[in-house]
Structure formats: C-alpha cells, structure tokens
Amino acid sequence: MNYHPSPNGLTQTETELVNRNPATEYLLMEAAMCAWECLLETHREKGFEDFGGAANARYLCSKLAPAIHYGYVIANKDDALAGWSYDWDFVPWFMDRCVIFTPQGVDLTPDWVNHCRELNPHPTAEDLLSEALPHITHSPLRTRIEEHLQNAE
User: Fold this and answer.
1) How much of the chain, in percent, has pLDDT values that exceed 90?
2) What pTM was estimated for this model as a whole?
3) Exposed, middle or buried, 86 (CB in 10 Å: 0-12/13-18/19+)?
4) What is the per-residue pLDDT across 125-136, written as a single tens digit (0 to 9) for each?
5) Are the beta carbons of 39 and 64 closer than 8 angstroms?
6) 80-94: per-residue pLDDT in tens?
7) Across all residues in the chain, what is the average pLDDT?
8) CA-CA distance, 38 to 91, in Å (whole number)?
9) How many Å is the Cα radius of gyration of the chain?
10) CB-CB contact of 45 with 96 (8 Å)
11) Which residues contact 87 (CB under 8 A, 6 or more apart)?
C-alpha cells in the first residue's frame, strides 16, 4: 500500500500544500506516536493480538505516519481544522475513517484522501443528524429526524 497521496489524485492547490509541508522525520515520528496513542485508547482492553502483538501494532502505526501527515495537510487547507487538536481530534478521526486493520496488517481505505478533503470539523446540527440517520432503525425518532431534515432544506 502506498501511504502517500497519489499526485494524480490531488488538486494543484493540494499538491502545493503537500510540497510546502514535507513529512520530516520529526513529523512522521509525531504522527506514529499519535496513532499508537489512539490504538492504546481504543484497543487496550481487547489487546493487540489482532495486530500480531503490541510491537507489531506500533510498527503498523509507523507505516501509517506519512498518510496521517499528508491527510492532515490536505484536511487543514485554509486552516479548516482551527480548534481541532492534531493528536486528540484529527488522528483518532483519521484512524477511524481512513484506516483498515486486517489480520495481514494495515491498509488505507481507497478513498482516504477524499475523506480528508471532505472533513467537516464544525458540522451543523443537520450535518450530524444526516450522518446519524443511517444508523437509526425505523422508529418515531427516525421519522422526526427525516421530517426535520426535509424542513431544513
């Protein structure tokens, strides 16, 4: 898996952003540590056997570091992530939305760059309701949300 965004898939502005914000050794180390911290928060009780043990999980986090860094650069275009912290907000979001852990290792969703591009760190109430709607089964609450969203248009 290529953990760098494909130049063919980036806009000219995104390519310029990526070129102005190279993944230095320090930034890659920070990204890997933040990913590891995120895994500790989400998998500590389950353990790391699914990742081949804790040492391998840390290694997988280091493999994700370039994608995390470039994903942040793309998502933060025009300072869009103002108010979001890199380690406590962006990296957990990235790990949840853009990363697939398999018994064979780690992979990125095919559309991970688009996820970063479309990240909305300050959603409206309607955005949140629209995102939640597919997870709500048929119920009076679902009907009320659907009606609210129709009236909001």
Assistant:
1) 37
2) 0.77
3) middle
4) 787 788 788 888
5) no
6) 898 899 999 999 999
7) 86
8) 7
9) 18
10) no
11) 30, 34, 37
